[in-house]
Amino acid sequence: MTKRLNTARSLTRLGLALSLAGLMTTAHAGLFEDDEARRAILDLRQRLEQTQGSIKSLGDENAALRRALLDFQTQIDSLKSEISQSRGAQERLARDVSEVQLRQKDVQAGVDERLRRFEPLKVSVDGREFMAEPAEKRDFESAMEVFRKGDFAAAQLALAGFVQRHGQSGYMPSALFWLGNAQYATKSYKESMANFQQMLSIAPAHPRAPEAMLAISNVQIELKDLKGARRTLDDLVKSYPASETAATARDRLARLR
To answer: What is the DSSP code (8-state) at residue 122?
Structure first.
């Protein structure tokens, strides 16, 4: 009996020990599982914090990038404005340059026109061509216009003024010739002869030289210098034998002998 009681007690203690061991194992397993869960939670929290930090950093970078893009766009807009203003200035400058060039051309044309008024030009008078200043041409033609009207006194003054103003002109021989004729017409015989003689001395080969010699003989006849007139007519025939005036001189000589 006692032995059975001891055996029962032993079994009871053994059961209790097993139960306690089971409880401890279960508790230990529970504790182990709680630690794993905590570590997992902590790891997740750490990862979440890191992710949130990365997101915040990324947000900051995005904000900085937006600001940089806005600044860049502002710079682009400013450059566009400057380029537009520069193009406008260039277009205005081009227009101004074009206008200046046009005005310069107009001014140059005006200057050229004024210069042409003073530039020598080729003229032909009494069968001779030469270069003459515009003022010479104007004064000579004006004097000859008076002569053609038959106002010999006024023509005499005009031609004498021309000779004084343009002593080196190519018109000079013709001016002396017509001045002598105007003076002959007003019976200023001595002055007339002097101008015909001056014309012959400076231009003996002038196409009107034979006529000048014939005019001298006429003056000499008017002055009753028949001997001088014959001598002049002889010289005319000898000097210009092929001229039409020489034929006239021969007829005059025949009448004067």
So the answer is: E
CA distance 239 to 137: 30
Where in the sequence is the domain holding 199, given as residue range(s)?
121-256
Q: Is the pLDDT of residue 27 over 60?
A: no
Q: Please tell me the pTM assigned to this model.
A: 0.58
List the end-to-end C-alpha distance of the chain, in Å, as a whole number. 221
Quote the CA–CA distance of 100 and 98 in Å, as a whole number: 5
Residues 70, 131: one domain? no
In DSSP terms, which residues pair with 123 in a beta bridge? 130
**Same-domain status, 150 and 238:** yes
- Do residues 11 and 69 share a domain? yes
Q: How far is CA 202 from CA 153, 170, 194, 229, 231, in A?
A: 25, 11, 13, 21, 21
- Does 127 lie in the same domain as 242? yes
With tokens 């026109």, the residue in question is: 113
Biggest alpha carbon–alpha carbon distance for the chain: 221
31-58 pLDDT, tens digit per residue, is 556 778 778 888 888 888 887 777 777 7
159 with 247, same domain: the answer is: yes
Q: How many residues does the chain have?
A: 257
Residues paired with 20 in a beta bridge:
none
Distance CA(225)–CA(235), nearest Å, equals: 16
DSSP class of 243: S
